[in-house]
Automatic annotation (TrEMBL):
Gene3D superfamilies: 3.10.20.30, [2Fe-2S]-binding domain
Ranges annotated as spanning the membrane: none
Keyword Iron-sulfur set for record: yes
Keywords per UniProt: 2Fe-2S, Iron, Iron-sulfur, Metal-binding, Oxidoreductase
PANTHER family found in the cross-reference section: BLR6218 PROTEIN, OXIDOREDUCTASE WITH IRON-SULFUR SUBUNIT
Protein name (record): (2Fe-2S)-binding protein
Keyword Iron appears in the UniProt entry: yes
Organism: Sphingomonas canadensis
InterPro entries given in the database record: 2Fe-2S-bd (IPR002888), 2Fe-2S-bd_dom_sf (IPR036884), 2Fe-2S_ferredoxin-like_sf (IPR036010), 2Fe-2S_ferredoxin-type (IPR001041), 2Fe2S_fd_BS (IPR006058), Beta-grasp_dom_sf (IPR012675), Diverse_Oxidoreductases (IPR051452)
CDD domains linked to this entry: fer2 (cd00207)
Positions of the 2Fe-2S ferredoxin-type domain: 1-76
Amino acid sequence: MTRFTVNNQPVEYKLDPQTPLLWALRDASNLTGTKYGCGTGDCGACTVDVDGSARLACREPIGGLEGTFITTIEGLSSDRSHPVQEALIAGNVPQCGYCIPGVVMAASVLLRTNRNPSEDDIKAAIPNICRCGIYPRLLDAIELAARIARGEAP
């Protein structure tokens, strides 16, 4: 059994310790906001917050997460009031939406650790692949999210 906290709720998984976190979240906890994209850790669709760092859920065996605190897109904000979510909506960034949960989670971790990221900081922290090509609007939206988080924008 593996025990950790997901979205402020203690969970205990009776799964093989080598089970990727992605599948524990999606299949055992019905938290389907975390997406399966590639399964190799290249696309970022499965990004979640593990103890304050952006991690790829497809590459994290649950056995190594004992005692950690994990936040998924469902636990970030139930009403889309997180600054990153607000900024992406304001900038009309999402298209198909598949990559957005992973992007939001990576950006939320970035803004928690860097309240005034440069364009290079944003590009380094959010290597997520988007097939729709939202990148220019995404950069603008994350800059807006940083301003919102700092109280400089509505």
